[in-house]
Amino acid sequence: MDLLPVNFCVLRLCGAWKEREDDGLIVRFISFCYRYAVIALIYYFTISELIELVLARNDVEALTEGLFLAISYITLCFKYFNFLTREHELRALLDCFRAKLCQPRDSAEMSILKQYDRKAKQTACLYMMMCQITGTLMITMPLLTKNERSLPCKTYIPYSVAAFLPYVLTYLQQSATVIYGILLNVSFDSLVYGFIIQACGQIELLCYRFTETIRFLKENNEEKKHQAVDSFAIADCVKHHISVYNITNRIESLFVWTTSTLFFFSLVTLCTSIFQMSKRDLFSPEFFTLLSYLGSMMSEVFIYCWYGNELDLKSKSVAQAIYTSDWTIISVEQRRTLLFVMMMSQRGRILSSYGFCSLILDTFTWIIKTSYSAFNLLQQASH
């Protein structure tokens, strides 16, 4: 995969993504079985978590203990469902990035795009590492407790795990679910802000092309000026700007509704995680596990808001790039074209779901404040 290779490599590992369709019948059958076995594992675990929540509905502490993890898997189920049902739209989005207008034309443009490729890869790897540390703590924590039959997650189990074999099988099943859940969740999340980072790279590439185009026109003499305007790239720059605008629209249409769900559930997750931490002994294994989980969850929301905010700022930088260039040397008709581009870019580009849950830093601040208020209410209700 030429775009976001880390994400699609992990998705292929989990059976969620297939790049080629020319495999043999046996390979396709095995891939199909593996893919839906992982899906069944995730959805079975989520249903078990929900049943456990219903059974513990009268106990606030038990309810919050299972709620933060259950909500994470409910959100993952939404993300996976969206991924499965709209895979063709995802492939269309990839084709937009692969279009000729979005490809580098020289080493300078290649350097710009590589910078953003590296940023997307580093962000995905760091977030994956953070979440895997959390998952490792969750899996190994039962082995550090005195209770010999402790499991990584508190779910509804319709059979007894008192015997050794059922316990080991259930432990392995929950461990596999945690590992696959982390791999898929991080991949889906980093896929969204990976595309946002790539869109930011395209906007910076667009600014560079506007600047270089006008610089090229300035270096031409008066006799060749209008010919250069017609033959070179102002029209291509405008088309590139429209292409980037369409890309951001596709990203918003494809992913933002699941992001809105994530933001809504993150309110509850942050609140219940802090509540559970307040009930644990300081420096205990359970405390560090919850602390790591809380850090991963906050990082997830923050990264979304940070890069969404970066996209908005980058979009506005197009107008600045045009204005600071020597636009006086071009024709009046071309100035009108650039003025239209400037008017569009000055509005910025905020990704949101019908105006709600905008991917900006103010949303992250609001989530933190609201979660803290809900935590105070939960503490009062538990006394």
UniProtKB/TrEMBL annotation:
- Transmembrane feature ranges: 25-46, 66-84, 124-144, 156-172, 254-275, 287-307, 350-368
Q: Which residues form a coiled coil?
A: none
Gene Ontology biological process terms, A to Z? signal transduction
Q: Could you tell me the membrane topology recorded for this protein? A: Multi-pass membrane protein
InterPro entries given for it? 7tm6_olfct_rcpt
Assign the protein's first listed, main location to one coarse class: membrane
What's one GO-annotated cellular component? plasma membrane
- Write one Gene Ontology MF term: olfactory receptor activity
Tell me any Pfam family this protein matches. 7tm_6
Where it sits in the cell: the answer is: Cell membrane
Q: Does the keyword Transmembrane apply?
A: yes
Q: Could you tell me the keywords of this UniProt record?
A: Cell membrane, Membrane, Olfaction, Receptor, Sensory transduction, Transducer, Transmembrane, Transmembrane helix
**Source organism's superkingdom?**
Eukaryota
Of which family is this protein a member? Belongs to the insect chemoreceptor superfamily. Heteromeric odorant receptor channel (TC 1.A.69) family.
Q: Which PANTHER family match?
A: ODORANT RECEPTOR, ODORANT RECEPTOR 19A-RELATED
User: What name goes with this protein?
Assistant: Odorant receptor
**UniProt organism field:** Cardiocondyla obscurior
